[in-house]
Known about the structure:
It is an enzyme of class 6 (ligase). It comes from Pengzhenrongella frigida. Residues 34-424 form the AMP-dependent synthetase/ligase domain. Its EC number is 6.2.1.3. This protein is of the alpha/beta class. It contains 17 helices and 26 strands. The strands form 5 sheets. It has a 9-stranded mixed β-sheet with strand order 2-1-11-10-12-13-14-15-16, sandwiched between helices. A 7-stranded mixed β-sheet has the order 7-6-5-3-4-8-9, sandwiched between helices. The longest helix has 17 residues, at 55-71.
Amino acid sequence: xxxxxxxxxxxxxxxxxxxxxxxxxxxxxxxALTRAAERFGDRIAIxxxxxxxxxxxxxxxxxxAAGALRDLGVVPGDRVAIALPNxxxxxxAFYAVLRLGAIVVEHNPVYSADELTHxxxxxxxxxxICWQKTAPSVVSVQERTAVRAIAVVxxxxxxxxxxxxxxxxxxxxxxxxxxxxxxxxxxxxxDWHTLMRRAKPVAADHPxxxxxxxxxxxxxxxxxxxxxxxxxxHRNLVANAVQADAWTNLRPGAETVYGxxxxxxxxxxxxxxxxxxxxxxxxxxxxxxxxSAVLTAQKRLPATFMxxxxxxxxxxxxxxxxxxxxxxxxxxxxAGAMPISAETAARWEEQTGGLLIxxxxxTETSPLAVGNPCSVxxxxxxxxxxxxxxxxxxxxxxxxxxxxxxxxxxxLLLRGPQVFAGYWxxxxxTAAVLLADGxxxxxxxxxxxxxxSLTLVDRTKEMIITGGFKVYPSQVEELLRxxxxxxxxxxxxxxxxxxxxxxxxxxxxxxxxxxxGVDLAAVRAWCEQHLARYAIPRExxxxxxxxxxxxxxxxxxxxxxGVLANRGQVNA
Length: 572
């Protein structure tokens, strides 16, 4: 199925205010902050635990932080690693690195030393800006990397002054909070806040990076193998923020965006950090996701837009019901990373009176590429339609030169201004996914209806081949989630000799009497009603919980590794 740019049939399903194409300005990502400071200077840009920073002050802090990085010897093209929770300092550091023409490398601040080592070595980062709790891990691996300076951030320094004072009180509550927010600072590191105070801001005429320059290395691929750095240019990130703006049609200078997704993840970085600056929104930053914190903030600075994943919306809605909290200000919520059930969507929309919009993307698309319309026509459980200026193809999984027809399963190919430039230092892996004329192989299997609305089926790299037949894990998982006694499930394949792979169900049991009857025979009997024989699990593993990514996506690769490491505990 080929959808040429000239006759994109999905455009007929766009809401009236969404354009077929967007104009991507030829500018650096930071240009949006400069405009916001000029247009909305007195508006709060970031609110962190009650302490606000205006757009004018944010722009000044970014210039001063860029001066601090310049004093550390950072020059255009250098990689600067950021390993911070969501906070004001994270936003300042992000834009400061870009202001110098250097490249941001985002990291999960709770990564282990081993995980950080690979990414720091791979990127060649020369400076690390990290949380106090992350600093010991960075210091422990510094000698194996190109890192020459480590600047440490105290999250408490971003808090309101009254809360900073309370944090010092000799009471248990303050001690607990100190333990959560702060940590020991290793010798040989630098204090980020001191560097900021002493630095001279970069001049207004300091050269800006070009739109074609690299802005960000975002590591991805952790669910399928060794993480690799996706190269995202300023143009990629600007384009995706412009596309999100066109899709949601939010009001410039009048929105409040909740930053409950981590900025170090592509989804949170675009929809919480760069998008909010482009539309001049107030962004409320949460250092970690907690429904109680969201509802507390809702009383003080009510949200109008929120991006998250299904479990987040479930937990917020449940607690709001329990507490009688008002969520009616949230007009649009955007969900990604995993399917949204009709039940979750209905519960959220009943609570808010707004819309819960499901979308799709990947790190390699900055990350947004497909979304449901922001209207009553949205369909929970589907990915929706290609974004403006985005083309799609759906091709045979084994032959990307052959397009499949409507209703047929195929791999999704994407092309648009948000598609990345390749993997850092990995030309072979880049060539495997970036085809001629800019088409990106997503590795995701989808089905399209006649209107080109997409539904996700599975990932090609996670498909199981058994006896020559293809098994789609998501299809089996969806069936088993409806089985009494099963709370959650991941389907993986393990080596099975000449047969290829063997289907294994890793199951989390629910706290009900029905869970006592969940064994391999019961699972197979349940599946036999709806699945082909080759797709029925041959083994069962009972787990206390499923491993998940920072935004809640089940890590099938980790499940598979655990199954292989504990075959003696498998019930077969």
